[in-house]
Amino acid sequence: MEVIGYAAQSARAPLAPYRFERRDPRPDDVVIDVLYCGICHSDVHKVNDDWGTTHFPVVPGHEIIGRIASRGANVSKFREGDLVGVGCIVDSCRVCPECRAGREMFCEKGVTFSFDSLEQDGKTWTYGGYSTRMVVDERYLLRVPNELNPASTAPLMCGGITTYSPLRQFGCKPGDQVGVVGLGGLGHLAVKLAASMGAEVTVLSTSRGKEEDAARLGAKGFVSTREPGALDALVGKFNLILDTVSATHDLNKQLTLLRNFGTLVLVGLPPAPIQLEPFALLHGNKRIAGSNIGGIPETQEMLDYCGKHDITADIELIKIQDVNGAYERMLRNDVKYRFVIDMMSLKA
Ligand code: NAP
Ligand code: ZN
Ligand code: ZN
């Protein structure tokens, strides 16, 4: 079927309208009218080819909320008119140990991401949510809790699961001291989620102007990291630090802020390698870990959790025609705290 989206034709090119074909729906597929799509910094990295892996033209978008327009004969879990989410993952082999364990992002045959990724046929490129319609197998669809606002739920599809998963993996619990580095799309969700789990959260930010917001989001502490000596009072404080920063920055000082046996989890994906000072890691048996989104069952668990705890993103709703300005503003660190595209603006 023919679909209209917004694509970048080459690295750093502005996004512009682009017509393309999606596969005809199969018996297990649903066709979704896309309502909202969040803008994750990974979309910006991909369009700018920061990681050197982008296949152009690229239609970004992996924080998708839509309504089911039609469904194939085998679809049993969803109906026409259901509000659904699509995140980073749209297919995988389904039979390898990782797929069976619900960790489809690590599929041994190769996961299919929702954009700039190869379908399981190994040759068809995927195009993301900055588009009018998606065709997705129901196995990879998420149910959106009724009580959540659909537009501000969109960022949960990547930003939410990417921060929820490491908080769960590293056992975030009441009374823990959790540091969140970078108060952006991921960071502000990390603050809300960690606070809801009973942790005492401190935000480490390069932006002094975000202090009031940090408190409103649930943080007990705030440190402006560019001010000399600002981190000194935090040495040895944290059980867990979630680093959501999109740009290359120093980790060695951050490691000193961990308690002994504490963990610094990287979820940000800066484009350059990191210099590590071994003593900073060894002293106190500190750990550095990574965490990559989350599988389909955990994403559903996160959405249900957010429904129960009334957690969504703080968003700025924009028209698709304003997407290039939004990318520029993200690079200037000027967004509170997630842009979400109203996809009806593409049909208008
Ligand atoms: P974002 O909204 O742009 O937020 C990034 C934050 O990093 C900014 O708000 C800013 O916070 C801080 N920052 C920016 N430039 C900085 C610099 N030069 N030095 C120090 N801090 C800086 O981005 P996002 O959408 O949250 O994504 C964050 C990163 O996570 C990106 O690299 C993205 O690709 C990655 N990501 C990873 C996964 C995963 O699976 N692990 C999933 C999604 C995204 P302050 O103003 O508070 O300093
Ligand atoms: Zn993302
Ligand atoms: Zn697999």
Description of the molecule:
With 348 residues, the chain is of the alpha/beta class. The protein has helices at 41-47, 97-100, 150-153, 159-169, 185-196, 211-217, 252-256, 278-282, 296-309, 323-331, 344-347; strands at residues 2-7, 16-21, 29-38, 64-71, 83-86, 89-91, 112-113, 133-137, 142-143, 177-181, 200-205, 221-224, 238-243, 258-266, 287-290, 315-319, 338-342. The strands form four sheets. Strands 3, 4, 5, 8, 9, 16 and 17 form a seven-stranded mixed beta sheet that branches. The structure holds NADP nicotinamide-adenine-dinucleotide phosphate (NAP) and zinc ion (2 copies). One zinc ion (ZN) binds at residues 40, 42, 62, 158.
Question: SSE layout and pairings?
Answer:
Layout: E1 2-7, E2 16-21, E3 29-38, H1 41-47, E4 64-71, E5 83-86, E6 89-91, H2 97-100, E7 112-113, E8 133-137, E9 142-143, H3 150-153, H4 159-169, E10 177-181, H5 185-196, E11 200-205, H6 211-217, E12 221-224, E13 238-243, H7 252-256, E14 258-266, H8 278-282, E15 287-290, H9 296-309, E16 315-319, H10 323-331, E17 338-342, H11 344-347
Parallel strand pairs: 10-11, 10-13, 11-12, 13-14, 14-15, 16-17
Antiparallel strand pairs: 1-2, 3-4, 3-8, 3-17, 4-5, 5-9, 6-7
Helix pairs in contact: 4-5, 4-9
The structure holds NADP nicotinamide-adenine-dinucleotide phosphate and zinc ion (2 copies).
Residues 92-93, 96, 98-99, 107-109 line the site of one zinc ion.
